[in-house]
Amino acid sequence: MTERSPHRRGPLPAVDIPALTDPARLRALAETGLDAEPDEAFDRFARLVSDLLEVPVALVSLVTGERQFFPGAVGLPEPWAARRQTPLSHSFCQHVVDIEIPMVLPDARLYPRVWNNLAIAELGVVAYAGMPLTDLDGRVLGSLCAIDSKPRAWTADQLRTLADLAAACSSELRLRIALDGAEEARRRAEEAHERLKLLSALSETLTGTLDVATAVDRLTAAVVPLLADWALVTLVDRAGAPRRVTALHRDPGRAAQVDRFAELMTTGLGPQSITRTVLRTGQPVLGSAATLDDVRRATTDPEMVSLADRLGFASHLSVPVPAPGRRAVVGCVTLINAPGRRPFDDSDLHIALEIGRRAGQALGNSWMYDEQRHVAEVLQHSMLPVLPESPRVELAARYQPVADRVEVGGDWYDAFVQPDGDLVVAIGDVAGHDIEAAATMGQLRNLVRGNAFGRTDPVDELMTRLDRAISGLRIPAAATATLARLRPRAAGGLTVSWCNAGHPPPLLVDAEGVVRVLGGRREPLLGFARPIARSSQETILAAGDTLLLYTDGLIERRDRSIDEGLAELLSRLSGAGPLPLAELCDLLLTSSDRREDDVALLAVRAR
């Protein structure tokens, strides 16, 4: 710095002291945990200096890049005594940090380095003696200083006493730094333990569902607030562009804002956004120190900047979600911290990369499951018939696979009109949940049609012929089935005759909603024994009455018998009263949340 002549007065230019902004020194200052507030230990040092050196003002002064503050102070005039800090324009101690040795001034007004310092006029600093306060690495954090408002010749004994007290004060600072380091180490150890627990549980958490939306929701819940204040999970479309973004903030009151930010992520990202960069390159991006300018450069929508400001944006970390077994990126996990929380570092990057990898495996399994399930459902529904139109009856059918299984099954139903106008309906269930079961189901349904169409034989004879066909053609079927014929009556309504081969009994719901089980002899399964002579039952279906055929998935569960399941079904139907046919079918399918098997349902209502 260029010093001024004693004959030139006026404000000095800002002093350029590189040490003041040294990151390591500032980090050590922060680790003391001290600020512009009284601290009894350092106030004691200030009192000792004042008493032993007989000075009106004594300070423990720590210096940052913008100010000096006094955790220990005696004799400061107001308003500085209450503030416990001053700007650097009032600081002598910054020069101790600069020169790294004691600064002793009998009359500061005579020294060009400080003669225009505002501390002389506003704090009454004339005589000054400052001893460096250092950390374990020798970095000068500030000074222990004695101040008088009049010129003073400092004695050797006074300076030796001040130096001894400064050494003790430095030890106290080092102890504070060490305690902060120990506390930080403890926090880091606990954090590392929690993160290991997160990783050990994450795979199970993510693989516990095959639904993509659920998996992503679980992922965000796992990382917020443990790893971040808020998080975004971006999934891409086939072109690699953001298709869907899920977000979570640690503050439930911010849910609407973070959801809006996620919505804008699909439309408002510019080509240089971090998310697009990660999706394009497959490389992570760590922003230990971030500002809203980072958001402003990344978006084409100004609303995202204001939202980021409200949500808190001071540090960010984005990692790819790789597709398992392929060199492709299917998504991006972004972690964001607000001001006041530790910024992300390399340790966070390592765990985030592992989270991204595990998320990729889970999402890959979910997508594979969705594809397989779609194929299975298409195959299954392709085997189900289009219900015929009939002036005498109303027909409705439902097929519902188990929600967490991709296998095709053996459940089926059928309905067709005979040349003479009779209606033939059937329902069945081939054992198994695989392609073989579905193939057998298809053969069996076709056999029923081929065996019954155009024939006027009673249903028991048709079922007997079906047994013989299964045996003669060596179809590996172990199946249940109910076959029924509905024939118009001259007096009105329909005559229903049916034959049951090991299947749950049909139900009749009359026009008033009263339910009756159509029992009778329950005969052996199809294809399970040598062909036998089958028998049939008969009842009347009046106008408004409904015949219900269903598979055992509607009533069967591992924790109860089929009889108990049937009793529960009858109770639900009896309590429902008369319902439109479609509503009746939907009621039966939605009344249980613990279904363990596929369900086929066929309802026939007489007009």
TrEMBL record:
Which UniProt keywords are present, listed alphabetically?
Hydrolase
A GO MF term = phosphatase activity
The UniProt record lists the keyword Secreted: no
> InterPro entries annotated for this entry?
Bact_Sigma-Reg (IPR052016), GAF (IPR003018), GAF-like_dom_sf (IPR029016), PPM-type-like_dom_sf (IPR036457), PPM-type_phosphatase-like_dom (IPR001932)
Q: Domain PPM-type phosphatase, which positions? A: 393-606
Is Hydrolase tagged as a keyword? yes
Q: Where is the GAF domain?
A: 37-183, 211-373
Its name, as the record gives it, is: GAF domain-containing protein
Cite the source lineage: Bacteria, Bacillati, Actinomycetota, Actinomycetes, Micromonosporales
